[in-house]
UniProtKB/TrEMBL annotation:
Gene3D superfamilies: Protein of unknown function DUF2935 (1.20.1260.120). This is DUF2935 domain-containing protein. It comes from the Bacteria. SUPFAM superfamilies: Bacillus cereus metalloprotein-like. It comes from Clostridium frigidicarnis.
Length: 309
């Protein structure tokens, strides 16, 4: 059973990462529809604003509670997040709440030694609210994916990207549900599940980047394609480890090396997008979004390697 302080800390850390991811998913959906589907634009915008509020509440409870390692990992915000938000807002006309990014930039790490009952209760209710909201967003994503595949809806987002963000929503829901049950973390099982999940995510990021780059960006296209192939292979290795035909430690080491490399690629790419140095149809916030996910996965891999949470 998780202690009260660990329940509070892990819940807030989860929301600081994933609530931002969900609000950006809603933004990517919103800007991908055509004028004909103005009702879907409005619905995606509504989800974006609801996740803004969820993130704002998580930030409010987080100061002095969440771990310093999370705040320093680059998974909550990066040095590019604010500029990427400002540029993406300029390009789309969507008002992005950059004040949330500014608030996160001044959060301080763990000072709380023991959680009081009131804080624990409020975080429990925040988790309940998050689960209900994530479930609704997952249903919306699923409905959109079905419409796109059956040619009833057009969007600038790849069908694979919609499926990708649907899986992330379901994963977020599962993690909150586990926290609500105060379930302890089994690091070995966690490594199997997380590495299968995130290696696939990293592979798909590479393929999205490859498909959204200008055809003249040959070197970047080749690099993204190579990362896609490498993480496809790592996904299969993680599945084999889950089936006990390959040691998980070997997969973790390979995944760690590959994730360090793709993080550097995404970091350079996000810098290039923010500075207008890369020809593409990639909205700058998407670059920063994928960088944060790589940073998140990198932190997890380091935990799996050392065996220390």
């Amino acid at each position: 059973m998780l202690s009260s302080i660990e329940f509070v800390r892990q819940s807030l850390e989860l929301h600081l990462f994933f609530a931002r991811i969900m609000k950006e998913h809603s933004f990517f959906l919103e800007i991908g529809f055509t004028e004909r589907d103005s009702d879907l634009i409005c619905k995606a915008d509504m989800f974006r604003m609801e996740f803004d509020q969820l993130l704002a509440d998580a930030i409010f409870f987080s100061n002095g509670v969440v771990s310093s390692s999370i705040l320093q990992s680059g998974e909550i915000i990066t040095p590019f997040t604010l500029k990427a938000e400002m540029a993406s807002s300029y390009f789309t006309g969507v008002e992005i709440q950059t004040n949330l990014t500014e608030a996160e930039s001044v959060l301080s790490g763990e000072k709380l030694i023991e959680a009081n009952h009131t804080l624990e209760e409020r975080v429990f209710m925040l988790n309940e609210r998050a689960m209900a909201l994530v479930l609704k967003l997952a249903e919306f994503k699923s409905w959109i994916l079905s419409g796109v595949i059956s040619c009833k809806i057009f969007t600038n987002n790849f069908p694979l990207l919609i499926d990708h963000i649907l899986r992330e929503a379901k994963f977020y829901y599962h993690l909150i549900e586990r926290l609500q049950n105060h379930a302890d973390i089994n690091l070995e099982k966690e490594a199997y599940d997380q590495e299968v999940f995130w290696n696939r995510i990293m592979a798909e990021h590479s393929k999205f980047i490859r498909g959204l780059l200008d055809p003249t960006e040959n070197e970047l296209i080749d690099t993204a394609n190579n990362f896609g192939n490498e993480f496809d292979k790592l996904t299969q290795e993680a599945i084999k480890a889950m089936d006990m035909t390959l040691p998980i430690s070997e997969v973790t080491e390979d995944s760690l090396k590959a994730t360090i490399k793709i993080k550097e690629f995404k970091q350079q790419g996000t810098q290039g997008l923010v500075d207008c140095k890369i020809k593409s149809i990639i909205i700058p916030l998407l670059g920063d979004h994928t960088l944060r996910e790589a940073n998140h996965y990198l932190r997890l891999l380091k935990i799996f390697k050392t065996g220390k949470v």
